[in-house]
Design a protein that fits this description.
- 54% of the residues lie in helices and 13% in strands.
- It is of the alpha+beta class and 254 residues long.
- The chain folds into two domains: 146 residues, dinb family like domain (Four Helix Bundle (Hemerythrin (Met), subunit A), Up-down Bundle), CATH 1.20.120.450; 87 residues, Nonspecific Lipid-transfer Protein, Chain A (2-Layer Sandwich).
- Strands 5-4-3-6-7 form a five-stranded mixed β-sheet. It has a two-stranded antiparallel ribbon with strand order 1-2.
- A hairpin with a 2-residue loop joins strand 1 and strand 2.
- Helix 1 runs parallel beside helix 7.
- The longest helix has 24 residues.
Length: 254
């Protein structure tokens, strides 16, 4: 099984390689997220790294974040930076968090527990949350520079098995009730999406026949995160594309 920490490391290194050569003008190009420039995406990742490190520290101190620790204050600080500062500081914060994760011993990983808002996270969930966020936002930057960009293969192998939790928060209920089955390649998986006016259910299944849609796991992850728009849908996505259009409404993304 792939190590999520290694997958985060791969994403961190790829993002740094993308960002370091960019000039100030390039940093102000729009990312895939329509409201964010490339620098804004980097600011989001950098502030996220700073906040994540603070929660990481409190976990091992068996304490709560101090009363003066306010994530909004961190976001405000990062939002006030120039595009160049956002980029440079984000790469530093990203690297610092990565080093902390890599240096955590197996024993410390086993005893790790942290509360982040309503979520109670163990080590795997904590690292998985950072991986999901980093992998997708890395793509938001990469695709602004290269329309054919895809999610990193290492992260894809891990994130595809953690989509159920993501889908719970990313989905939007629809008036039509139906079940849509999806099979993936690289790796091979099968999923069912049940839509309805009250909720959406996304889960792994054993298929008894042909799926309604087939695609790479990379494409499925981007679909759930609202990043499989027609412009960025590869020809390898096969099946009833009217169902794909429905799923784009279920998972609207940014």
């Amino acid at each position: 099984m792939l190590d999520a920490v290694q997958a985060v490391r791969s994403s961190v290194d790829r993002l740094a390689a993308l960002v370091r050569p960019l000039d100030d003008t390039s940093l102000t190009r729009r990312s895939f997220c329509s409201q964010w420039t490339i620098a804004d995406v980097l600011s989001h990742l950098g502030s996220g790294a700073a906040i994540t490190r603070r929660y990481f520290q409190t976990s091992f101190e068996n304490s709560e974040p101090p009363d003066d620790f306010n994530p909004q204050r961190v976001w405000d600080e990062w939002n006030a930076k120039s595009p160049r500062q956002k980029a440079d500081d984000a790469l530093v914060a990203d690297s610092e968090l990565m080093n902390v994760l890599e240096m955590t011993s197996p024993n410390d990983r086993a005893r790790f527990k942290v509360s982040m808002g309503p979520l109670e996270l163990d080590w795997d969930a904590f690292v998985g949350m950072r991986l999901n966020e980093h992998l997708v936002h890395e793509w938001d930057v990469a695709v602004a520079l290269d329309p054919s960009a895809t999610l990193g293969a290492e992260g894809t192998q891990v994130v595809v098995d953690n989509l159920e939790r993501v889908a719970k928060f990313a989905s939007k209920a629809q008036d039509d009730s139906r079940t849509i089955t999806i099979s993936t390649t690289d790796p091979e998986r099968s999923f069912s999406v049940v839509t309805g006016p009250e909720q959406v259910t996304f889960c792994s299944v054993q298929l008894g026949g042909k799926a309604d849609l087939s695609m790479s796991a990379e494409s499925l992850i981007r679909l759930v995160y609202g990043r499989l728009d027609p412009e960025h849908t590869p020809a390898s996505v096969q099946g009833d594309h009217s169902l794909l259009d429905q799923l784009r409404l279920v998972f609207p993304g940014p």
